[in-house]
């Protein structure tokens, strides 16, 4: 049963967001109008910032091999964002029918050398859809990636292939459906809940056909379809945790001479420059460090504006001054609380 719910005002006051995939407690249900109120958001076992989803088991990162061409820098950024959320990722390389088999094999080998599972698929020909369906079966997944790579087309292809295998309708007897057959198939759209798909722009960029995150039943599991975007946020990262988001670094870091090594120019570093993504790692390190420095400057500016003294009103209207101490540096935990 589906309910159209509003969120309690207290949740908005405490800035408690409600995400796709959240498990919630609903109160005040009106079964006639199918309405209710989200009273509480239950604890999350996982959360992803871009796209904003919760309680997923894995992330499917979809990239195109052509139209638009595969960009390893963008792929790395998506993978780092997924690693920061501590979620397993599977890389899906769509539009395999548009490139030679040698180029497809090279792209797969490159992604697998990074430490990730990679699948070459084609929504147009049906290649790799059976393997992708097995990955989705029985799990809660989210699909993410740039615009125009064919995320919604893949979801439609999996639905159509499953429908063709389980029904004796005219659509099933016509063989594996193609992208050209999808347009104008109003009956299939209504029956299977197919996602809208769009073409690329004249510049070869994807259009934002998917406008919001939605949770769908696909291949015996739940799959969150999300709008495409080219730059996932890295706000949750810091310099100390960045290296843990690269499987190549984690594999080599145990033999590194320094526990706090940044894997840049340190002598005796076991990670430096002998892996393919080192240049991309250095770029992201500089970006994250610049963001940390900016946050530090803004924090210092805020402290200067607030000053180092605060005023208190005493008996008789007398104002007294006392030092405004940094809670993290100067405040001590109450001994009464410690004893408890």
CATH class type of the largest domain: Alpha Beta
Uncertain runs are 168-173, 200-204
General shape: flat
- Spell the H/E element sequence: EHEEEEEHEHEHEHHHHEEHHHEEHH
Helix content range of the residues, please?
25-40%
Structural class per helix/strand content?
A: alpha/beta
**First-last Cα distance:** 47 Å
State mean pLDDT (0 to 100 scale).
Answer: 81
Q: Count of helical segments?
A: 13
What's the story with the biggest beta sheet? 6 strands, mixed
Under CATH, the topology of the largest domain can be stated as Rossmann fold
If strands are numbered along the chain, what order do they take across the biggest sheet?
8-7-6-9-11-10
* Computed CA radius of gyration, to the nearest angstrom: 26 Å
Classified in CATH, the superfamily of the largest domain is P-loop containing nucleotide triphosphate hydrolases
Number of domains: 4
Number of strands: 13
CATH A-level architecture of the largest domain: 3-Layer(aba) Sandwich
Strand content: 15-25%
């Amino acid at each position: 049963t589906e309910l159209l719910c509003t969120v309690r005002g207290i949740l908005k006051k405490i800035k408690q967001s409600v995400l796709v995939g959240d498990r919630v407690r609903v109160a005040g249900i009106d079964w006639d109008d199918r309405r209710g109120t989200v009273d509480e958001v239950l604890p999350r076992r996982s959360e992803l910032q871009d796209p904003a989803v919760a309680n997923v088991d894995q992330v499917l990162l979809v990239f195109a091999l052509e139209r638009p061409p595969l960009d390893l820098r963008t792929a790395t950024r998506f993978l780092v964002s997924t690693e920061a959320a501590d979620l397993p990722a599977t890389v899906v390389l769509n539009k395999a029918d548009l490139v030679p088999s040698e180029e497809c094999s090279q792209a797969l080998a490159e992604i697998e050398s990074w430490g990730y599972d990679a699948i070459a698929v084609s929504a147009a020909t049906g290649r790799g859809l059976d393997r992708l369906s097995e990955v989705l079966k029985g799990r809660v997944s989210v699909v993410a990636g740039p615009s125009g790579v064919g995320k919604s087309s893949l979801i439609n292809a999996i639905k159509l292939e499953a429908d063709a295998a389980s029904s004796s309708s005219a659509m099933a007897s016509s063989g594996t459906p193609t992208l050209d057959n999808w347009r104008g198939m109003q009956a299939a759209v209504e029956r299977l809940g197919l996602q809208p798909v769009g073409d690329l722009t004249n510049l070869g960029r994807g259009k934002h056909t998917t406008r919001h995150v939605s949770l769908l039943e696909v291949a015996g599991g739940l799959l969150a379809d999300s709008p495409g975007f080219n730059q996932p946020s890295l706000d949750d990262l810091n310099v100390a945790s960045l290296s843990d988001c690269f499987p190549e670094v984690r594999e080599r870091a145990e033999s590194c001479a320094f526990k706090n090594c940044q894997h840049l120019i340190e002598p005796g570093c076991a990670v430096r420059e002998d892996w393919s993504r080192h240049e991309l790692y250095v770029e992201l390190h500089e970006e994250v460090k610049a963001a940390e420095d900016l946050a530090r400057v803004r924090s210092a500016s805020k402290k200067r504006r607030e000053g180092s003294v605060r005023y208190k009103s005493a008996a008789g209207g007398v104002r007294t001054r006392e030092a405004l101490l940094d809670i993290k540096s100067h405040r001590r935990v109450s001994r009464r609380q410690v004893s408890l």
